Automatic annotation (TrEMBL):
Location of the region described as Disordered in the Swiss-Prot/TrEMBL record: 69-92
Keyword Methyltransferase in annotation: no
Provenance organism: Oldenlandia corymbosa var. corymbosa
Protein family membership: Belongs to the glycosyl hydrolase 43 family.
Biased composition (Basic residues): 79-92
GO terms for biological process, alphabetical: carbohydrate metabolic process
Name of this chain's protein: OLC1v1011452C1
A molecular function GO annotation: hydrolase activity, hydrolyzing O-glycosyl compounds
Taxonomy of the source species: Eukaryota, Viridiplantae, Streptophyta, Embryophyta, Tracheophyta
Length: 468
């Protein structure tokens, strides 16, 4: 006989009732949540719209001018007529894309990509109305009349001297290939430094970190690679700290190097190189945040992803903390900046010296997760926008005193003669909805669109020029 256990709790019935009850609680909570989400996104939308209209109303009219869409296009020229004999002797390559045309040093339209000496920007000559104009791609002379040598560079604004310092690869040597399949290179000469008060007239401050001529075991030996130097100032130690990409000829060392100086104009003392966090590191940059914490960002895992991590307090090393970002996206040439508490980054694809499409990324925290928000290039034509105006990102400089206005600094590499690589500086602004779907932010527009505007010539707003 089965005894009924009167002490047994009637679990099944209660449980059903309970689960019915908890499902309705769950349902109502869900409805509540959805309502809250709608309300939040409505408020946020209103906020963003009012912020934007405010932005436009409050925007400096000269910034609006820089945001004009400027069209430009370059056509592949028809093949030159040649005698049948000449054509037989040396068949000419037929270019199917403008990138091939760009890379061909004997192209008929080479002067469009690399305008000649006659059009050089010379801030020291009487420029009349042309003063302070940037002409992306033209030769740019320093105050002694020599082409500026600061490739893959970055700019430091030094509060103490109220001066801008532009550091970059000094590549004024012959271009060659170390072996048949190697990328074009120039032996290391060192890091060039130029100073300016107006971001247009640049005085050559010399080589602030020089190559090592004789010691083949030295990181800075001329047959190695020194690229993308960036300098930040450490408020606590009062030192200027330079981080750079250090490699061997075949790019297998894949390390970062660190150098330090008491002065922005050097000389910098080279300290050491390492693989940060034990990983390969190629294109890189450093970013100093408002709270004084600085970060290293570098392409790693064979350029398939980027890594980001804070530096030690003295900026002379990385710490143990590191996060992987843009995993599987194969990006390099990172240039980081901050606007209204949000972090932004421009990167390029990985095609050596050949230009490719830039992408913008955004994040609430520099440590990620980073969201890819699309191609920031505006104007020119499709090919201009798909090649970052035939250049590659290296740095983004905030224009002090004009919130929301930045200068995008890029290199138009000339792989046939790297010393003749040009600078492409263009205005970068923020505003408007981003044009690529979100992965992490669940659809809330936390950040704005990043826009880099093509201009054949442009200059900073009059009210800013020369202001310290
Ligand atoms: C690029 C890189 C440059 C340089 C070049 C060498 O991808 O951004 O800094 O390393 O490759 O081929």
């Amino acid at each position: 006989m089965r005894m009924k256990n009167k002490y047994r709790k009637p679990t099944s019935l209660r449980c059903n009732a309970g689960s019915r009850c908890s499902s309705s609680v769950l349902l109502w909570s869900l409805v509540g949540c959805l309502l809250m989400l709608h309300l939040y996104s409505y408020i946020r939308d209103q906020d963003v719209h009012s912020q934007e209209s405010h932005l436009h109303i409050g925007r400096h009219p000269e910034i609006l001018e820089l945001e004009q869409f400027e069209e430009d296009s370059i056509q592949i020229p028809p093949p030159r007529k040649r005698s049948p004999r000449a054509a037989k002797r040396k068949p000419r390559k037929v270019h199917t894309s403008l990138i091939e045309e760009f890379l061909d040093e004997s192209s008929q339209i080479r002067h469009i990509f690399f305008p000649d000496q006659k059009t050089a920007i010379d801030p020291m000559s009487d420029n009349g109305d042309e003063t302070h104009f940037y002409y992306p791609g033209r030769i740019w002379l320093d105050t002694t009349g020599n082409p500026i040598q600061a490739h893959g560079g970055g700019i430091l604004y030094d509060d103490r001297t109220k001066t801008y310092y532009w550091y970059g690869e000094f590549k004024d040597g012959p271009t060659y290939h170390a072996h048949k399949r190697a990328a074009a290179r120039v032996d290391v000469i060192g890091v060039g430094c130029y100073s300016s008060k107006d971001l247009w007239t640049w005085k050559n401050e010399g080589i602030v970190l020089a190559a090592e001529e004789n010691d083949e075991t030295h990181d800075l030996h001329k047959l190695n690679v020194l690229e993308r130097p960036k300098v930040i100032y450490n408020d606590k130690t009062g030192k200027y700290v330079m981080w750079m990409h250090i490699d061997d000829t075949n790019y297998t060392k894949a390390s970062v190097g660190v150098a330090v100086s008491n002065f922005p104009t050097g000389p910098f003392t080279y300290l050491y190189s390492k693989r940060p966090h034990g990983f390969d590191s190629r294109d890189m940059t450093v970013f100093k945040d408002d709270d004084g914490i600085a970060y290293l960002l570098y392409s790693s895992e064979d350029n398939s992803e980027l890594h980001v991590g804070p530096l030690s307090e003295d900026y002379l090393d990385v710490t143990e903390t590191m996060r992987r970002i843009l995993v599987g996206q194969h990006r390099e040439a990172p240039a980081v900046f901050k606007h209204q508490g949000m972090y932004y980054m421009i990167t390029s694809g990985c095609t050596s010296w050949a230009p490719n499409e830039a992408l913008a990324h955004a994040s609430e925290s520099i440590m990620g997760p980073w969201e890819t928000i699309g191609n920031p290039c505006i104007g020119g034509d499709k090919i201009f926008r798909h090649t970052t105006f035939f250049s590659q990102s290296t740095f983004v400089l905030p224009v002090h005193g004009i919130p929301g206005l930045f200068i995008f600094l890029a290199d138009r590499w000339n792989p046939a003669d790297l010393r003749d690589s040009r600078y492409v500086w263009l205005p970068l602004t923020l505003g408007g909805p981003v044009d690529q779907p979100f992965e992490y932010s669940f659809g809330f527009p936390l950040w704005s669109r990043v826009s880099i505007y093509w201009h054949k010539k442009w200059r900073l707003p009059f009210s800013w020029r020369g202001k310290e």
